[in-house]
């Protein structure tokens, strides 16, 4: 018995509210922003997963970026090397993930960098962590970055929670 499948879809409908997002004014923009952050993070993770074998390798890439970075503030120049660009892209994805929170407002990553934190500051935090925890860097790069950012930017309990 064979089943036929349509060759293409012209429309995808999502019924209900699967993400639990309120449908008040401004919600479509928030929904679009959440989806775009998720898409960017997913693409970055897929690309980075192929480019970074482990946390030790990412730390080396980020150290090379630190050595070659020039400037500060609004004008920062990073080396145009595979290593530096991989570190930069990876840490930008981490920065995007760091703002995601659950329904109760708790950051999913467990780190709370201030809104004005720059990507280079996150890289410095990760490299500092990598130097202090060198023996723990053979595992997954994402886990090491999460730990580094939790250590550098711990979330403070609000209102005694």
Features:
disordered N terminus, mainly alpha, two-stranded antiparallel sheet, 161 residues, globular, 5 helices
Topology:
Elements: H1 27-51, H2 55-68, E1 70-72, E2 75-77, H3 82-98, H4 119-132, H5 141-152
Antiparallel strand pairs: 1-2
Helix pairs in contact: 1-3, 2-3, 2-4, 2-5, 3-4, 4-5
> Structural class, from helix and strand content?
mainly alpha
- Main β-sheet, spatial strand arrangement: 1-2
In total, how many domains does the architecture comprise? 1
Number of strands: 2
Please report which band the strand proportion falls in: under 5%, 5-15%, 15-25%, 25-35%, 35-45% or over 45%.
under 5%
User: Secondary-structure element order, as H and E?
Assistant: HHEEHHH
Biggest sheet character: 2 strands, antiparallel
Structure description:
With 161 residues, the chain is mainly alpha-helical. The protein has one domain. It contains five helices and two strands. The chain has helices at 27-51, 55-68, 82-98, 119-132, 141-152, and strands spanning 70-72, 75-77. The protein has a two-stranded antiparallel ribbon with strand order 1-2. A hairpin with a 2-residue loop joins β1 (70-72) and β2 (75-77). α1 runs antiparallel to α3. It is globular and about 40 Å long. The N and C termini lie far apart (59 Å). Residues 1-25 have low confidence and may be disordered.
